[in-house]
Amino acid sequence: MCIVRDGDKLAAISTTCTHLGCIVAPSATGFACPCHGSQFDVDGNVTSGPAPKPLAWYQVSITPNGELEIDKDNEIQIGTYLSV
Amino acid sequence: MSNEKSSIVKDLVNLPANVVRSVFRNPLPSSDRGRAATSFTNFFLHIQPVRVSRQALRPTYTMGLGLISFFLFVILTVTGILLMFYYVPSTTQAYDRMLDLRSSVAFGIILRNMHRWAAHAMVAVVFLHMCRVFLTGSYKPPREFNWLVGVALFILTLFSSFTGYLLPWDQLAFWAITVGTSIAGYAPLVGHALRFMLLGDATVGQEALLRFYVLHVVVLPVVLTLFVAIHFWRIRKDGGLARPESVIQAPAKVPVSVEIAEQPVSAMPMGGTVVVAAPTRRFTIQGLVRGPLVKVGKLEEDTVFSWPNLLIAELFVLLLTVAGVMAVSYFFNAPLEQPVNVMHPPNPAKAPWYFLGLQEQVSYSAFWGGVGVPAIELLLLMLVPYIDRSKVGVGRWFARERVWANVLFLTFVIINVILIIIGTFFRGANWQFVSPF
Questions:
Q1: Is residue B254 a contact partner of residue B294, using CB atoms and an 8 Å limit?
Q2: ipTM entry
């Protein structure tokens, strides 16, 4: 899981590669997978390699006591940020 | 009374000799009859024919590859059982047990090294054996079915080695399970069910380790043993190893009826004394055989007795295999990566060499590289003896008549070797292309 912050906006992007389940790592241009070479941009869109789908974005919310909650069962549209 | 006593004393005196004679029923044979008897009265030797063709014994013909595969399997079974005494299939203990093998178990390092290197060798040698069988045209009728059994044995060998390197629960193990079961998930229709069945859970963890452990130490070895038995049995039933057609003479006429001359068994009075005729034997037909097995009344030419010719060759190969595995295990330690870190796969995360061709393939497409192409390759391999039905060029390396079949097969081999070389030497961090030079 990778928490992305853009100014005062937050999002949670999955770091599980959509190809064969390795964990991608942040790279200069976004994310890179060490197992089979898939490359993703900062939004998780596939830029090269065998990954069939972009990285998943999950629903993020702030709980009443101020904690960040990520709902991994709830995939959302790429580019949907939570304003804080 | 004294008579009885002396007989008991005699029995006791003869006891050791009688025990030995009951176990080793034949003295070391000094005649051909004895050599034949040795082969068919010994459980282990009776698996082999009494006589074996000189061709089958020629090291340059078989290179002993099938035997080496079998002996490697024996080494793996023995070292595997010993390793089971020290291993616990638990995600919290498995890795520590590997460290224990290194530090506190007597001969633990050599035990683990032998198991690992014999496994690597078995993958290579089984594949080379398959190449030998293809390039000598030995899969042709009547040996088609045994080729199928052989292909199954190759796949079982791959699965055994795969399930094996998952057990140390190091980084290699964790990411190999993750990737391996994800590939299974790409299989059409059954993919997701198969993945769940292998993992026993939604994620890679304890259940997966336990399942792969049971597969590795029980299911796969038992199935493999069964297939090895069928493989060996079929060699005998198909008339031994394949031989060039020029060597095989036209089969002798199969006797369709056997005349049994009956001799009256009776006590014949002859000139006052009674001569008891020696008990005559009755011959009955016990069964009928057909095909290349029929050898009634005809000794095949260019054959030698299995005892001792075949036995010596086999013992030599056994010695060479054990010595080779031990030598490699003495100088090189089996790899053990870092303990599992579920957040960080190693970079690059590479499979053992024999799967790097597959890894290279899936780096283009998960479905085609991991499921589609291997399935097509496997199907083509299995269909080989049913597509190529001609009976020419059997039992010889690179027979001219088979040049196209051999070229096609070698192309398949070379493509896979090139993929492995690329995966091994030309892939660096993030599986990017790098030059090793």
A1: yes
A2: 0.90
